[in-house]
C-alpha cells in the first residue's frame, strides 16, 4: 500500500511550529515559478497535466478529418483558427472595425445602452453582467441575475487606495497604447476619459466583502421597476441589444442595487464622448488576446507583468487550449474523460463522499452550540446533498455553434453569442439538475447553494489530492478534506442561509446564528492577524476569506472524522515513519504546496476569497487532533490554547 506522501520534508522545520513549512519548504526553496505564471503549486501542476492532455486532444482534432459540424471538428477548427498567426497578423486590428464603427455611430443614451447589451452578447464585459441560475427564493425556476462589472483594474479598491496610485498611472498609459494599436484615433485624449468613466463606475461598486452577502445581494425586481431604480439606463434598449427572449427579463435579481443607481447617475452626468471612448476600450481590451502580436503583448504587459508580476506570456498553444476550454469545454471534456479517468476512481470517490456525509451527520448530532430545531434542518439539508463526480451524465450540445477555421474573432463572438443564447433560453424551462458549471478537465471543485450539490471534476482526482492506490490517511487529508470543504460551504456564513432545497431562507434559530457568527468572527480575527509568506508587510482580509476559511476548517475537521470512520474497517498502518493520524495532516498540507510572485500575492489579497496557501495549510492549528498527532505544546508555533482554537463543526 502506498503512503500517498509526495512531499520532501524540510527537517529544519518542526511540524509543531509550521506545518506548511515542514511539508512544503523544500519544494518552495528548490522550485521556480514558471515564467508564464504568477503563482505555482499543487493545483497548477495538475492544471499543466490537464492542459497537456487537452493539447494532445485538440491537436489531434485539428489534424483529423472529422465530419464537418462534429464536436471534434469544431474543437480542431477553433484551435486551428487561434494558431494561424500568419492570418492574424495580416488582419491586424481589422476584426474590430465593424464594432468600433457601431460604437462611433451612437448618438444618444438609449443607443449607448443598447450597444452595451450587444457587446455583452459578444463576450465583451460592459457595466452590467447578466447570468442565469435558479432563483434563490424559488429554486424550481430559472431567473436572470445582474451584477456589477466594467472595471479594467482588479476591483474598486484600485481606484481609491493610495497604494495603487502608480498602477492607476500605468493603467492610463496602457489604455492609450492599446487604443492606438487598435487604430482608434486621438488615443491620448481618450485614455483619461476612459479612466474618468472607470473611476466613476468604481465609486458605485460594492466592495469584495459586501458582494459575498447572500441576503443583501438578493433583490428581485419586475422588469418595469428597473427603470425606477436606474432611470438613465434604458433597460428595454439593453434587452434588445442582448437579444433577450420575450419574457426572459420579466423578473430580474439585482445583486447590487445601489451600483445600478450610481451607474444611472454616471450615464446622466458624464459626456457621451467619454462613454463611447470607454465602450471602445472595453471592446479592444476584451478582444486583444485574439488580435495581432502588438496588441497581445501590450495587453499582457499590463495585465500580466504590472498587475501580477508575471515575466512571460504563455506559449501560444496554451492560450489556444484556454480558448477551446472556454468555448467548447465539454466537447473537449468528453474526449478527455474517455482517455484519462478510470472508472474505479469514481467508485473510490463515492466511498469517500459517503463517509464525509456520514461524518457531518454524526457531527451535527453532537454539536453543542446547535439547537435541536436547527439540527433537524441541517440534517435534512445534508440528506438532500447531491454529489457529482468525474464528469456530467449528459454532455452539452454544441450543434448550433458555428466554428470557422479561418475566422478567429468571429469564432470568439459566435461562441459568446451561443453561450448567452443557451443561458437566456433556460428562463421558463425546468431546472436542469444534470448541468455542470465546470468541465471534467478543470482542476477545481465547487458547491452550488441553489442546487445543494458538490461537484468534483475528473482532473482534480489525482495526487496529491487523490490516489486510488494509496492508503486512506493521505486521501482523506487531501481530497477528503476538500470534499468536506465543499460540503461545508452549505453550512458556512453564506451557504447556511440556503435550506436543503436550495432556497434562500432563514432556517436557523436566532440563538444558533449568533453562536455561529461568534465563532466565525473569531476566525476572521485569527486570519486578519496573519501575514502571508509571499506578501511580507501585508495582511490577510479575514472578512473576505471567512467563507473559504470556514470551508477549510470544517473540511479538515470533518475529513478527519471521516478518516476515523474509514479506519474502523481499514486501520491505517505506520508508513514512511508516520502514523495514519500524522499522514492525514501531512496530506492536507501537501495539497496547499505552492508560492506566488509578490505582486500577485498582493493582488490576490485584495480580490481572492481564498486565503494564501501557507495560511490555508496551517488552519490545522485549530484542531485538537493536530495537537495530539504531533504532540504540539505551549510555545510551539502551531500551538493554540483550547480557548483560542476555533471549532465550528
From TrEMBL:
Pfam families documented for this protein: Peptidase_M13 (PF01431), Peptidase_M13_N (PF05649)
Entry keyword set: Hydrolase, Metal-binding, Metalloprotease, Protease, Zinc
Cofactor dependence: Zn(2+)
One Gene Ontology MF term: metalloendopeptidase activity
InterPro entries documented for this protein: MetalloPept_cat_dom_sf, Peptidase_M13, Peptidase_M13_C, Peptidase_M13_dom_2, Peptidase_M13_N
Protein's GO biological process: protein processing
Gene Ontology cellular component list: plasma membrane
Domain (Peptidase M13 N-terminal) ranges: 15-392
Domain Peptidase M13 C-terminal: 444-646
UniProt xrefs under SUPFAM superfamilies: Metalloproteases ('zincins'), catalytic domain
Keyword flag Calcium: no
PROSITE patterns: NEPRILYSIN
Family statement: Belongs to the peptidase M13 family.
Protein name (Swiss-Prot/TrEMBL): Peptidase M13
Organism: Leekyejoonella antrihumi
Amino acid at each position: 500500500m502506498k503512503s500517498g506522501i509526495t512531499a520532501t520534508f524540510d527537517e529544519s522545520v518542526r511540524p509543531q511550529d509550521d506545518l506548511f513549512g515542514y511539508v512544503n519548504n523544500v519544494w518552495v526553496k528548490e522550485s521556480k515559478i514558471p515564467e508564464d505564471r504568477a503563482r505555482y503549486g499543487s493545483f497548477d501542476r495538475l492544471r499543466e497535466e490537464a492542459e497537456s492532455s487537452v493539447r494532445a486532444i485538440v491537436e489531434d482534432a485539428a489534424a483529423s478529418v472529422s465530419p464537418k459540424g462534429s464536436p471534434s471538428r469544431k474543437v480542431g477548427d477553433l484551435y486551428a483558427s487561434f494558431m494561424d498567426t500568419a492570418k492574424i497578423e495580416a488582419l491586424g486590428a481589422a476584426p474590430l472595425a465593424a464594432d468600433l464603427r457601431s460604437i462611433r455611430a451612437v448618438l444618444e443614451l438609449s443607443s449607448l445602452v443598447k450597444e452595451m447589451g450587444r457587446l455583452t452578447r459578444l463576450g465583451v464585459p460592459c457595466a452590467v453582467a447578466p447570468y442565469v441560475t435558479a432563483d434563490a427564493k424559488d429554486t424550481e425556476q430559472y431567473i436572470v441575475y445582474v451584477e456589477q462589472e466594467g472595471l479594467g483594474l482588479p476591483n474598486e479598491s484600485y481606484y481609491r487606495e493610495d497604494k495603487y496610485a502608480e498602477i492607476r498611472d500605468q493603467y492610463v498609459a496602457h489604455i492609450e497604447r492599446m487604443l492606438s494599436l487598435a487604430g482608434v484615433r486621438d488615443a491620448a485624449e481618450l485614455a483619461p476619459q476612459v479612466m474618468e468613466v472607470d473611476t466613476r463606475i468604481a465609486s458605485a461598486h460594492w466592495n469584495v466583502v459586501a458582494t459575498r452577502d447572500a441576503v443583501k445581494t438578493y433583490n428581485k425586481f419586475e422588469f418595469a421597476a428597473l427603470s425606477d431604480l436606474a432611470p438613465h439606463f434604458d433597460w428595454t434598449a439593453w434587452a434588445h441589444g442582448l437579444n433577450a427572449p420575450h419574457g426572459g427579463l420579466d423578473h430580474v435579481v439585482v445583486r447590487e442595487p445601489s451600483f445600478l443607481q450610481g451607474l444611472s447617475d454616471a450615464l446622466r452626468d458624464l459626456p457621451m464622448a467619454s462613454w463611447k471612448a470607454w465602450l471602445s476600450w472595453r471592446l479592444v481590451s476584451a478582444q486583444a488576446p485574439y488580435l495581432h502580436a502588438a496588441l497581445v503583448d501590450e495587453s499582457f504587459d499590463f495585465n500580466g507583468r504590472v498587475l501580477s508580476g508575471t515575466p512571460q506570456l504563455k506559449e501560444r498553444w496554451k492560450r489556444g487550449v484556454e480558448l477551446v476550454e472556454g468555448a467548447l469545454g465539454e466537447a473537449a471534456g468528453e474526449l478527455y474523460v474517455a482517455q484519462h479517468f478510470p472508472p474505479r476512481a469514481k467508485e473510490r470517490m463515492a466511498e469517500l463522499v459517503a463517509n464525509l456525509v456520514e461524518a457531518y451527520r454524526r457531527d451535527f448530532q453532537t454539536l453543542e452550540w446547535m439547537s435541536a430545531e436547527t439540527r433537524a434542518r441541517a440534517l435534512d439539508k445534508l440528506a438532500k446533498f447531491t454529489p457529482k463526480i468525474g464528469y456530467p451524465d449528459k454532455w452539452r450540445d454544441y450543434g448550433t455553434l458555428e466554428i470557422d477555421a479561418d475566422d478567429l474573432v468571429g469564432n470568439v463572438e459566435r461562441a459568446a453569442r451561443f453561450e448567452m443564447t443557451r443561458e437566456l433560453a433556460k428562463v421558463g424551462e425546468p431546472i436542469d439538475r444534470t448541468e455542470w458549471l465546470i468541465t471534467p478537465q478543470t482542476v477545481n471543485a465547487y458547491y452550488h447553494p441553489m442546487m445543494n450539490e458538490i461537484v468534483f471534476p475528473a482532473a482534480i482526482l489525482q495526487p496529491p489530492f487523490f490516489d486510488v492506490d494509496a492508503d486512506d490517511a493521505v486521501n482523506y487529508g487531501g481530497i477528503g478534506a476538500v470534499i468536506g470543504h465543499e460540503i461545508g460551504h452549505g453550512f458556512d456564513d453564506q451557504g447556511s442561509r440556503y435550506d436543503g432545497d436550495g432556497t434562500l431562507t432563514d432556517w436557523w434559530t436566532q440563538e444558533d446564528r449568533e453562536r455561529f457568527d461568534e465563532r466565525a468572527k473569531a476566525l476572521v480575527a485569527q486570519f486578519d492577524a496573519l501575514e502571508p509568506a509571499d506578501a511580507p508587510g501585508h495582511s490577510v482580509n479575514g472578512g473576505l476569506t471567512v467563507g473559504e476559511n470556514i470551508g477549510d476548517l470544517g473540511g479538515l475537521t470533518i475529513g478527519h472524522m471521516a478518516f476515523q470512520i474509514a479506519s474502523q474497517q481499514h486501520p491505517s498502518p505506520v508508513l514512511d515513519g508516520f502514523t495514519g493520524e500524522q499522514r492525514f495532516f501531512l496530506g492536507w498540507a501537501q495539497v496547499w504546496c505552492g508560492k506566488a510572485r509578490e505582486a500577485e500575492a498582493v493582488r490576490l489579497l485584495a480580490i481572492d476569497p481564498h486565503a494564501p496557501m501557507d495560511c490555508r495549510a496551517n488552519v490545522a492549528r485549530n484542531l485538537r487532533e493536530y495537537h495530539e498527532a504531533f504532540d504540539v505544546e505551549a510555545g510551539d508555533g502551531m500551538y493554540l490554547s483550547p480557548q483560542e482554537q476555533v471549532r465550528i463543526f
